[in-house]
Amino acid sequence: MKGLGIIKKASTLVTSAGVGTIVSYGVKFVTPIATLNPVMKVCVYAGSFVLSSMIADKSSQYVEEQIDDISESVKNFLDGINENEEEEITENNESHNDFQLFKEKILKECVNAHTNINEDDENGES
């Protein structure tokens, strides 16, 4: 499914960027950067980057799994509809075949009855 792959990539990109930005701002909000020495500032920025990346990665995996689940559910639903249509077609064909057999049986009985009447007339029987 080409379209599904595009949707997954776009959703993953949007989710990753959004979650990464939120986590980065959250870290900046709760961390007193101005009071830290230069070494600690580097550590906080590195930690913020790693934390943002990890959470964004897990969020992206979650979104992909949800898209896969929805896709599978839709596929199963559509397969169920197709199976029901095939069953209806089979049932209709079976009903049609039963009707055809019934018609042929009646037709044979009518022909046999007509033949018997003609034979009786030829033999002089009433």
Could you characterize the architecture of this molecule?
The chain is 91% helix and 0% strand. The mean pLDDT is 79. It contains 2 helices and no strands. α1 packs antiparallel against α2 (38-123). It has 126 residues and is an all-alpha fold.
What is the mean predicted local confidence, pLDDT? 79
Number of domains: 1
> How many H/I helices?
2
Oligomer: single chain
Distance between the termini: 77 Å
Total number of strands: 0
Helix content: over 70%
In what range is the share of β-strand residues?
Answer: under 5%
What is the global morphology? rod-shaped
Cα Rg: 38 Å
Describe the biggest sheet? Answer: none
Q: Which stretches are low in confidence, meaning pLDDT under 50 for 5 or more residues running?
A: none
Q: What is the H/E string? A: HH
Structural class: mainly alpha
Keywords:
126 residues, 2 helices
At a glance:
This protein is mostly helical and 126 residues long.
Q: Can you lay out the helices and strands and say which pair or pack?
A:
Blueprint (H helix, E strand, L loop, with lengths): L1 H29 L7 H86 L3
Helix pairs in contact: 1-2
